[in-house]
Amino acid sequence: MLRMKLRVLLLILTVVGCKRTSTPLVKPSSGNINTISVVMPNLLWETEVGDAVRAAFAFPTEGLPQQEPLFDLRQMPPEVFTGFARSSRTILWVGFGNEVVIRTDKNSYARPQQMAVLSAPETETLVEIILSQSTSIIKSFKQGEIAERQRRIGKSILKHNALKERFGINLTLPSAYSVFKEDENTVWFQREIQKGHVNLLVYELPKDTPIDWENPLQDVIRVRDSVGKAFVPGRLEGTHLITEEAYKPYVYYTKIGGLPAIETRGTWEVKGDFMAGPFVQYLLYDEATNRHLVLEGFVFAPSTAKRDYIFETEAIIRSIERINKD
Q1: Whole-angstrom Cα Rg for the chain
Q2: CB 3.0-4.6 Å disulfide test: which of 117, 171, 176, 211 passes with 103?
Q3: Sheet strands (E) in 233-275
Q4: Domain residues of the chain, as ranges?
């Protein structure tokens, strides 16, 4: 009887063990923010196909004072794409095949993971699909990188009520930030970095502020400069933040938190001082409350790469949640 019970117990453990091992374990993805693992042969990387990949995915990021690529590209030949290399979060596979292949795979080797696969029989067609498909691939990759940055931010967040009390919204900020300055209509968050600081401004515009949504740039600059003069002083007395006058900002239409928004990217400077850096601003219109809300990230980091700092502020802004005021 005892032997029978032991056999039954052993059988149960064996079945449970088989069930556990039958489900593949998907390891977590890895990699630096805004980095693409490009899987393609070394010889192909040195041809016009490699040139097309670099032109399509590593062109200069808009709105930065120095040239920095949209994505860092880490090329590797297919035979090296094994083991840990397959855990890359963002992958671009490019090569020759018998037919044209344009495909996006998710979580094939790790989670979360995006892999765009582009293949064609000859060079001309392969270059063409790289260039024609890059816009949609970049959009997908960027959404994934925003989500990853927000996930990392969520590991240690700043607890605050400054935005809820004034604007009925919340943003998920890293705990390294703090409220640097505030008044009734404006909150300024800041975090110190090795050679400067990363900043986030949130403010509400007066109800009668005119905004031309058809041609918004002039109004955006006017609003930015007026808030800079009133709220963001420079290091020297009588100086303040303005929009860089020498370069025209980039303007787009988008949505933030389900609200229509004007996205503006460019560079700022301090009038009367030698300070400058990049900014990204989102001017939102909330029809339910008939108000314009502005969220802006700007970075001061001389002699330092700034792309990922601006990207961090964008990820924070895109975490916006509308909540009811108490």
Answers
A1: 25
A2: 117
A3: 240-243, 250-256, 259-271
A4: 27-153, 162-322
